Amino acid sequence: LVLRFRDFDVLEFGSGEELLASPTLPKLDCMILDLRMTGMGGLDVVENCRARGITAPIIVVTAFGSISSATRALKSGAFDFLE
What pLDDT, on a 0 to 100 scale, did the predictor assign at position 37? Predict the structure, then answer.
């Protein structure tokens, strides 16, 4: 809502699989992923995007963070990890 209010174009996806199947994936400027998403989790999506050569910044957010999940996210190529 805040991003839309600031005139950013925002796309929402119902799951990590839906995002990864989207033809818009290579064109995204930034992604905000929840650690615990429906289906494939945020960390798996980060790793999948990086394996595909997607270089857009990815921010992982969660209310269930841990040192190991933050470390994995950042080592996998996430731009930031917000708890």
Answer: 87
pTM score, whole prediction: 0.89
Alpha helix stretches (DSSP H) within 13-76: 16-21, 42-51, 67-75
With residues binned 3-state (H G I as helix, E B as strand, rest as coil), the percentages for the chain, rounded to 5, are 40, 15, 50
Contact 48, 64 (CB under 8 A): no
pLDDT tens readout for residues 9-59: 999 999 999 999 999 999 999 999 999 988 899 999 999 999 999 999 999
CA distances from 54 to 30, 31, 48, 50, 61 (A): 10, 11, 9, 5, 19
Spatial neighbors of 36 by CB under 8 A, at least 6 apart, are 42, 62, 64
